[in-house]
Specification:
By secondary structure, the chain is mostly beta strands. The chain is built from two helices and 13 strands. The protein is globular, with a radius of gyration of 16 Å.
Length: 182
Amino acid sequence: MEIKKSNIEGVWILEPNCHADQRGYFMETFREEEFRRLTGIDPHFVQENESLSKRGVVRGLHYQLPPYAQAKLVRVVRGEVWDVAVDMRRSSPTFGAYVAVTLSAENRRQLYIPEGFAHGFVALSEEAVLQYKCSAYYHPEAEGGVAWNDPTLAIAWPIAPDEVCLSPKDQQHPLLADAKCF
């Protein structure tokens, strides 16, 4: 597995080795000891989630506040998404900055997002199935969000605003200036 640093400290891009032949393929999608050796992070995942989204669906930007803050390891098993992690740590020199990566079943890339970041994505294919491991259980009383189109964040979403489909809940997220942060 190849693990690369992103432009924000603590966010990593993982590219698993895929062994393919006439039968199909095999790949190890995560190996804790290798991840720890290459990143210095000792992950402990307790929950795994999966979502199916149609083209244009934006999910996010979501996060969990302490004491239930979550690190996530995100991958796509069908289709393609443009995945975003936003630094929500007020004391960070990269507060409000983001990392964006195209994740797809074809490229098999994964994104590790540490605690203190909001996460969101837009489905670029007709359907996209996204799976993600979490380091803490979901607690509704600890959930936070920030508007996907906050002009302060200036996220360059690869889709026209009139093509975006949001849940009612995601339509209500505050701007960064008004969001609960770490």
